[in-house]
Amino acid sequence: MPKTIFHIDANSAFLSWSAVEKRKQNPDLDLRLIPSAVGGQVHSRKGIVLAASLPAKACGVRTGEPLYLALRKCPNLHIEPPDFHIYEKYSKQMYALCNRFSPDLMKFSIDELFLNYTGLERFWGSPMKGAERIRDTIYKELGFTVNIGISTNNLLAKTASDFEKPNKIHTLYPSELAQKYWPLPIDRMFMVGKSTCARLKKLGIYTIGQLSKTDLSILRYHFKTFGLQLYQYANGISTDDFKPIEVPKSIGCGITTPQDVTTLSEILRVAMALTQKAVHSLRSQKLTCQSVEVSLKRTDFISFSHRCKGDTPLDDFKSIFALVKQAIEEMWANQPLRALSVRLCNIEIDAIMQYTFFGSAKAEQNRALQTAMDQIRAKYGYESITIASILNNPLCNHVTKTQPLDISSQL
Ligand SMILES: [Mg+2]
Q: What are the φ and ψ backbone dihedral angles of 113, each rounded to 5 degrees?
């Protein structure tokens, strides 16, 4: 029996969640109805637009553009600073509300989730009726609108929820592919980013329909294993690869050192190498962590561990290492060590973009540096770049060369 899957996506989540929260203090002010944007660092006018209201969009304000540019287009733009705690609260409320309708949910990002509606018709009616009920309940109880896409798998449900917005329900059943899916330009397909899009266009493939009819061997030749996935997605087939919510519980990296480590500076250097490796894995999976756990094993084989938590989700080495350093300094009592491990915890999957602009100018610098390092590593390999203070340190080389990452069991 085919499944029935809903993809539920809050419309302009950051803006509408901020608006709902603001209205609690001032019922006359609805950020959704005035030119407004959520964006970082209002005072310095740095940062970018994370979300914009419809009136702001009507002035030409676009998500992702620098705030100063948005202000030039729309001088009376109300800028609301992002507040991660509010978003987390509404995200959880949306999840809990949907959970009343189906026990089988999958969080996809802070404002999107999949709901398995298979077999629930007898409780809530047809899929369309059920979706309307969920949409209306979210609006009534939580105060914001959502789009819902309905189909037989995650891929098509997610594609459907992206059709006309806001506050809309769309279906994209396999029987509707020719009418609703295949005419779409290729960059509307899930997983097709800028570079894939450019490569497909070079092959003369401009629409999802054209891709769906391309010979698989041609796609395999140009895109290797990704070619099969492109072909399947274009044909509306979502295999088990589509597992956006599988987030590791933690990402860890540890070593037993070839000799005892006795000084704080040496411990920190090894921890730096371990953190660097774990962060690399975190970033390559586009995940964030909010806490770290450091475990130390003394030469008498007794182990200690200690956890430190940050205020917001993190994905850059510098901020994460600051937590690691804090954990070590709070825990280490001058005993020589023989093993050390660093584990990144409270892992979340999200569009990293969503968290990118919460920080200060300094944080933005860190991110730019981190992105540059990612790019160099992607091109020349993990060992092509590292932090100067651990360069040529034999213990740290040991981490880089031999220690595989340990990704713990899936949630
Ligand atoms: Mg959304």
A: -150, 160
User: Tell me, what DSSP letter sits at residue 384?
Assistant: G
SS3 110: coil
Say which residue the tokens 């200060």 belong to: 360
Which residue bears the tokens 């660092």?
A: 41
Cα–Cα dist 149/156, whole Å: 8
CATH number of 251-407: 3.30.1490.100
Please give the CATH number for the structural domain made up of 1-176: 3.30.70.270
Reply yes or no on whether the pLDDT at 102 is more than 90. yes
Domain 182-234 has CATH 2.60.120.620: no
- CA–CA gap between residue 247 and residue 113 (Å, rounded): 14
Distance (angstroms) between ligand 1 centre and the Cα of 172 equals 18
**Residues, Cβ < 5 Å to ion ligand 1:** 9-10, 13, 111
Q: 163 C-alpha vs ligand 1 centroid, how far in Å?
A: 12
Positions marked catalytic: 112
Given a cut of 70, is residue 185 above it in pLDDT?
Answer: yes
